[in-house]
Amino acid sequence: MSIEAFESVLSGAQAGAGWALTVLYRDLQPRVLRYLSAREPTEAEDLASEVWLDVAEGIGRFRGDEGGFRAWVFTIARRRLLDLRRRSTVRRAKPVPLELLGGDRGVGDVEEEALASLEADAALALIACLPPDQADVILLRVLGDLSVADVARIVDKGPGAVRALQYRALRSLARIITREGVTE
Q1: Average pLDDT of the chain?
Q2: Is residue 51 within 8 Å of residue 77, measured between CB atoms?
Q3: What are all long-range contacts of 6-15, with beta carbons under 8 Å and residues at least 24 apart?
Q4: 168 or 96: which carries more pLDDT confidence?
Q5: Residue 173's closest CA among 132, 116, 128?
Q6: Which of 86-90, 137-141, 177-181 has the lowest mean pLDDT?
Q7: What fold is seen in the domain 1-93?
Q8: Domain ranges of the chain
Q9: What is the DSSP string of the chain?
Q10: What is residue 93's predicted lDDT score, i.e. its pLDDT?
Q11: Rounded average pLDDT over 19-27
């Protein structure tokens, strides 16, 4: 979205225009849902609903650009996730089942979408095997399309720590892929 278009949509959303909130929702919801699905697959949809309620309630106070907005939404998503985990004493100890990692799918070339879906699901399943802090960093950087500085603020760590977590996560993923091989 261009800077002017984002500013127009944000202004509309802050004024309570339903069309503007819809534009923001359609733009970010698939990424937010995938992030939450990778971290808590059985609660992802409920958490995403809470995120958008928080966004709608707080959008009037938001100040910033499109990147800042994306970081703000993912900050809310991560906080809802942490709140859920604080309320729950049970921790997931095994990888997420592939069928729970779906997320929203568009309509178009079925074959292309099927291949992309399999690749995305396989990638998310691999990421789910990582330690939680590494998985968060990778998901926020890739799905959230956030900078190291934005991720550092969201996870409450320094930029150097975020880069180190990302590096370790990528090395772990490379080892897993090398060990298991890649099929085509």
Answers
A1: 83
A2: yes
A3: 6/65, 6/66, 6/69, 10/59, 10/62, 10/69, 13/59, 14/59, 14/60, 14/62
A4: 168
A5: 128
A6: 86-90
A7: Rna Polymerase Sigma Factor; Chain: A (1.10.1740)
A8: 1-93, 109-184
A9: --HHHHHHHHHHHHTT-HHHHHHHHHHHHHHHHHHHHHH-TTTHHHHHHHHHHHHHHHGGG--S-HHHHHHHHHHHHHHHHHHHHHH------SPPPGGGG-----SS-HHHHHHHHHHHHHHHHHHHTS-HHHHHHHHHHHTS---HHHHHHHHT--HHHHHHHHHHHHHHHHHHHHHH----
A10: 52
A11: 94
CA distance 22 to 29: 10
Residue 108 burial (CB count, 10 A): 9
pTM for this structure?
A: 0.71
Residue range 109-184 forms a domain whose CATH class is mainly alpha
Render pLDDT for 117-168 as a digit per residue (tens, 0 to 9): 556 777 777 888 889 899 989 989 988 889 999 999 999 999 999 999 999 9
Q: Which of 138, 145, 109 is nearest to 28 (CA)?
A: 145
User: Residue 183: which region, alpha, beta or left (left: phi > 0; alpha: psi -120 to 50)?
Assistant: beta
